Amino acid sequence: MKLRKLAGVAAAIGLSAALAAPAAYAAPDQFFPVLAYRTGAYAPNGAPWANGFVDYLKLTNSRGGVNGVKMSWEECETGYATDRGVECYERLKGKNGGATAVQPLSTGITFALTEKAPIDKIPLITAGYGRSESANGAVFTWNFPLIGTYWMGADVLVQHIAKKEGGFDKLKGKKVALVYHDSPYGKEPIVLLQERAKMHGFELQLLPVAHPGVEQKATWLQIRQARPDYVFLWGWGVMNSTAIKEAQATGYPRDKMYGVWWSGAEPDVKDVGDGAKGYNALAMQHGAEPNAKVIKEMLQKVHAKGQGTGPKEEVGEVLYMRGLISSMLQVEAVRAAQGRYGKGKHITGEQMRWGLENLNLDQKQLDSLGFAGVMRPVQTSCLDHMGSAWARIHTWDGKKWNFTSDWYQGDDKVLRPLVMLVSAKYAEDKKITPRTPDDCKK
User: Fold this and answer.
1) Which residue of 258, 318, 330, 362 shows the fewest CB atoms closer than 10 Å?
2) What single-letter DSSP state applies at residue 346?
3) Is cis: bond before 212, omega within 30 of 0?
4) Other beta carbons less than 10 A from residue 440's beta carbon
């Protein structure tokens, strides 16, 4: 009798174990820390990016994850401060099986984490920001400035004004003022613009603005006195709208102003309204995309179910799209890594690096993900960590952003020598042996 009971218990335990087995062996989630800033002077710009970023992870999970593997995340508030960003990184990097990748959303935080990433073996994705020289994957083996760097953006702006003037030779004797956030972010384009100024003979005026950028009267007094032909704005947060208001107050034409892609979103111009009419900015491929297929799917599968991270009204706006695209790029890197290391498997940080170095998002795949008309193909390699160098201009008409230029591609003849020079200096200073094409085959 006792033996029969024990056998029954054993059978029940075996059945329970068998039923539990799929859950026990299911791949853990891919964990992504979200370094966000929803408070402080930069919150109006930081929040929509974070909302788009997290919403795309939710949409990915609603699609079934990546071959069944779901995405998980946890936010940490940085306030756009470098020290707090590093604290967030340290707090989250080991959670939930370890970070798959980290997106700092700050050039200052990127600089601080660049030497930590190789030790922790966690890729840094810095889509449209960070260190421009990190496009060289031979030296910066864990940094990925996907689809754009500040040198590329500055190069496109010079190409655009040259086209407006009738050719690069027409830039000789012109004046270009750079109004920039006095931080690693704002200083990034200077070396490229100085190089272009030497090449084409235009005068470059450098005008730093202290954090957070609400006091610019002295800056715009200098602009009124110098009367530059063009103003490039490298601002963030309240600095952008303040600059446009000061331009209006001093009578500087907004149609002669060109912002980088972090100075060309709805929070930068909405409060100025018609006063910002004619103001131009780089579009980091995308602009406001309310009619994109991915946005319609987002509204249907996430927001209609009350699961949206932020307000429905911002879905499809410029910074929301920026966060969404940054999220998509990391999700697709997971998919690429699974293609090598096993579909449906959890991807480590090292495997994620391989995925990021082997992204190949052709137009067909982008279209299938809902990004038709939003962005161009992206293809990275072991040595090319940017993968795409395209941008265009959009202009504020007083109510909305409209594309006003064709596509421009960063000029590799200008960009590559600068990337190689500065990255080589970094490698020398840090005693790094750059990877070779043969190393990339390993």
Assistant:
1) 362
2) P
3) yes
4) 13
Q: Which of 80, 396, 126, 401 shows the shortest CA–CA distance to 239?
A: 80
* Residue 354 neighbours by CB under 8 Å, 6+ apart: 336, 337, 340, 341
How crowded is residue 411: how many other Cβ atoms within 10 Å of its Cβ?
15
Tell the burial category of 205 from Cβ atoms under 10 Å away from its Cβ (0-12, 13-18, 19+).
middle
**Per-residue pLDDT tens for 36-70?**
999 998 999 999 999 999 999 999 999 999 999 99
Looking at residue 26, what is its pLDDT? 58
Q: Which residues face 179 on adjacent strands?
A: 207, 233
Give the C-alpha distances (Å, rounded to integers) separating 11 from 15, 112, 340. 6, 56, 39
Q: 147-174 burial, b if ≥16 CB within 10 A, otherwise e? A: bbbbbbbbbbbbbbbbeebeebeebeeb
The confidence score (pLDDT) of residue 258 equals 98
Closest residue by Cα to residue 329 from 264, 265, 281, 285: 285
Q: In which residue ranges of the chain is pLDDT below 70?
A: 1-27
Which distant-in-sequence residues (6+ apart) come within 8 Å of 311 by Cβ? none
CA 142/CA 409 separation, integer angstroms? 25
Dist CA 268 CA 99 (whole Å): 32
Coil, strand or helix at 179? strand
The answer to whether the CB of 135 falls within 8 A of the CB of 386 is: yes
Radius of gyration of the chain (CA): 24
Cα gap 136→128, rounded to integer Å: 15
Residue 382: CB atoms within 10 Å:
19
pTM of the prediction?
A: 0.92
